[in-house]
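Aim 2 progress update. The chain analyzed this quarter is reproduced below.
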Amino acid sequence: MSARGRACEAVVVGSGPNGLAAALTLAEAGVHVRVLEAAATPGGGCRSDARTLPGFVHDACAAIHPVTVASPFFRKQQIERHVEFVHSPAALAHPFDDGTAALLLRDVRATDAQLGAGGSWARTMGPLVSDAPALLEDLLAPLLKFPRHPLAFARFAPLALLPATLFARGALRSARARALFAGLAAHAMIPLEAPGSAAFGLMLGLLGHHVGWPFPRGGAGRIVDFLVERICAHGGEIVTGHEVRALSELPADALKFFDVTPRQFVRLAGDALTSSQARPYERFRYGPGVFKIDYALRAPIPWCANECASAATVHIGGTLEEIAHSERDAWRGVRSARPFVLLAQHSLFDASRAPDGMHTAWAYCHVPHGDGGDFTDAIEAQIERFAPGFRECIAARHTTGAMQMQAYNANYIGGDIGGGAATLWQTLARPRLALNPYRTPLAGVYLCSSSTPPGPGVHGMSGVGAAVKGIWDRG
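Predicted structure tokens:
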């Protein structure tokens, strides 16, 4: 992709989902926009490739997409009319050492029954699921404002502010339910004892009941293909292989949007920021990293619990206490002997992911920030714990450590795929405390990455928020 040479009114640096969402929002508003991407292909962490063996399709980072199909931006774009999303019978499976597994199903009461939760799961999640359309409108936006749906928000917020461990032990009446919730909350990549860690569990749980946990047939890159096509149809340009090293390289009179994290923005802005202006961005905290493995498999994973074959996503970590210990270790810079593993098995439900008779698996665990160690044995020991004989199924594997993640995508500082630690404070003040978190101290310059509200996920709402503010400021 190359520029056509036409003068642009807005420039977006970085082509992750948020950068592309900003570009499409601008283009639909009649602004001529140019996206500049350093890599050879657009997409950021939303790419797919054959990184193990020919004929296999692996997702580079984002792999399961409930927040995509629930996002107001993607719903407005009617993405499900253009990209086919695959739904497994169960959104999520969580195996246990007794050979059984808990399932997150679309039906709240059915989920409660197989969890043995005595109605506690349904009493907690049922009202939130009923409020889901209104809640998502407020949660996928900056939180430092009066909510559009205050009653729904008031039912969610007091629970979301709790530590996940406190919520699980107080609200859920079975060990299976508490373990399932712990796995949901662990997506936050912060200790489950931290205030606000329950928010991720509640959000992902209600998404599972509301829209499921689907994924695009053929790979996550289909989402990016869709966005690029829409941007170009509105006259926008995508320029790949173009690394921006300084703000001064960009047209002075153009609106500028950066799909980068605060540390990178300070570097790109250089002397344009005073030390006091740069300080809040420099204080921004990054979270733990990840160690990821992509597998080409000769056969499906041989789970002890047959229920695991009904879900595209499997959480591997055992009990609430085990998962909490693993997440606490990663946050404190300790290598966990039994890390919590997030695994996706797309090919059970999408035959395009692997050659006939073969399968794929996608797995990662949370590791200390910037850790350069190899966690292959630890991850595979956890999978073998619930699927003996797994290693015999492996035809090839491709590993990506925390610092290799950063090399692949410069936004993944220290391997942090979330664009910054999702602590309670950094959820409210992301990337700094401001009513307009997208606007920077520099006129006409905005941040639009997952380091801005609403945070991580392929939802595009950070890009939309920044683009709307830029259009409003420009008048």
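Confidence is low (pLDDT under 50) at residues 1-5. The CA atoms of residues 24 and 299 lie 41 Å apart. These observations will guide the mutagenesis experiments scheduled for the next reporting period.
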